Amino acid sequence: MKFNVSSSALLSALQSASKVIASKNTLPILDSFLFNLEDGKLTITASDVETRLVTSLDIAGNTGTGLFAIDAKRLLDPLKELPEQPLSFDINDDNMAVNVEYENGKFSIPGQKGDTYPQQKPLKDSAFSVTLESQILLNGINRSLFATADDELRPVMNGIYFDIQPDYLIFVASDGHKLVRLRNLSVKSNERAAFILPKKPANLLKSLLAKNSDMITVTFDENNAYVKTPAFEMVCRLIEGRYPNYDAVVPTDNPNHVTIDRISFLAALKRISSFTSQASGLAKVQVSENEMIVSAQDIDFSTSGEEMIVCQYSSVPVSIGFKASFLIDILANISSTNIVLQLADPTRAGVLVPSENEENEDLLMLLMPMMLNDY
Predict the structure, then answer these.
(1) Is a pLDDT exceeding 90 seen at residue 48?
(2) What is the model's pLDDT at position 252?
(3) Quick one: which of 162, 164, 184 has its CA closest to 173?
(4) Per-residue model confidence as pLDDT tens digits over 115-165
(5) CATH topology for the 251-367 domain
(6) CATH fold group of domain 2-113
(7) Fold agreement between 128-248 and 251-367
């Protein structure tokens, strides 16, 4: 088998696919990329059994067809150091030795037959499909991924919940302390369906979709999801189980609404977080008429800090405690200039929403309070 390919195009495809490969694999062949040479196209597959990514490249001067596998590290390391130029691959059909020639050199690495590479099971006939813009999917993942949990006892919390309704798509993520609910009104469906996307494929999509503007089709059954674009196809095992009723934890009657500049609030929190207790990370938020005071102290090290921020508020004074790092994460994942902090009392969750939502979006973030030991 022989073919010619651009070094930069091959490297880009391999680097995207390499993110799937696990550091320790149960099957040795999963340390390798699977190549399928057929009809003037080179298809590249990487898998860790749970997640599988397939992408393809146009090639030239190819002779022969077939499957072969090459160890990912052995191929990637020299390619990273090559400037853009054509590469000529020659694979010995008998012993699978791979010879690569380029402008001023060549290298040889062992390959292996690809027929033992695990194949992907097809989806069930009952599979559900939804089509959406890649940027909608990217935005949903970007806004919610930080709020997912790492909980071995409740695995359903360890991914992003896709709640597909006839008139909109909702992205949900929660770790029990913070919650994100992003509703996109431009995605329509004939019926209701849902699935939970694990973190690894979510992170993979985050990097792949950053340079993609195509339409995406997501097809899934109870166990697996196929994400297809013209550039790549990703298959992943879904998290099985019933996601909690996320709407039940969102307060509907937080009467005290504080409108504040998001960047000012975020910057103040980052400075004040230096003075929080290492054990709790507690920051105190006090709001009174048109004024917010953010403060923290660490009794063990005799440090404290306090900042005042101008805000729009005209209701009764309220004091509430939040874990500073969680509140910083939330503010960093809202894009609007101003946010509205909705409060009731120190024992009930605070709700943060943008003062103006993006087009066709409805974003809500929630943070559980911490007990205040007044200082």
Answers:
(1) yes
(2) 87
(3) 162
(4) 999 998 889 888 999 999 999 999 999 999 999 999 999 999 999 999 999
(5) DNA Polymerase III; Chain A, domain 2 (3.10.150)
(6) DNA Polymerase III; Chain A, domain 2 (3.10.150)
(7) yes
Res. 374 pLDDT band, cuts 50 70 90: low
CA distance 297 to 137: 40
Long-range interactions of 213-216: CB distance < 8 A, separation 24+: 213/133, 213/134, 213/135, 214/134, 215/131, 215/132, 215/133, 215/134, 216/131, 216/132, 216/133, 216/134, 216/137
User: What local confidence, expressed as pLDDT, does residue 61 receive?
Assistant: 85
Superfamily of domain 128-248: DNA Polymerase III, subunit A, domain 2 (3.10.150.10)
For the chain, give the secondary structure using H, E and C.
Answer: CEEEEEHHHHHHHHHHHHCCCCCCCCCHHHHEEEEEEECCEEEEEEECCCEEEEEEEECEEEECCEEEEEEHHHHHHHHHCCCCCEEEEEECCCCCEEEEEECCEEEEEEEEECCCCCCCCCCCCCCEEEEEEHHHHHHHHHHHHHHCCCCCCCHHHHEEEEEECCCCEEEEEECCCEEEEEEECCCCCCCCEEEEEEHHHHHHHHHHHCCCCCEEEEEECCCEEEEECCCEEEEEECCCCCCCCHHHHCCCCCCEEEEEEHHHHHHHHHHHHHHCCCCCCEEEEEEECCEEEEEEEEHHHCEEEEEEEECECCCCCEEEEEEHHHHHHHHHCCCCCEEEEEECCCCCCEEEEECCCCCCEEEEEEECCECCCCC
Residue 137 · residue 148 · CB < 8 Å: no
Identity of residue 61: G
Using alpha carbons only, give the angle 335, 338, 339 rounded to the nearest 5 degrees: 85
- pLDDT of residue 375 exceeding 70, the answer is no
Please tell me the number of Cα atoms within 13 Å of 360 on its side-chain side.
Answer: 14
pLDDT at residue 16 greater than cutoff 90: yes
Give the whole-angstrom CA distance, residue 116 versus residue 292: 63
Residue among 295, 294, 293, 300 at smallest CA distance from 278: 300
List the chain domain ranges. Answer: 2-113, 128-248, 251-367
- Identity of the amino acid at 310: V
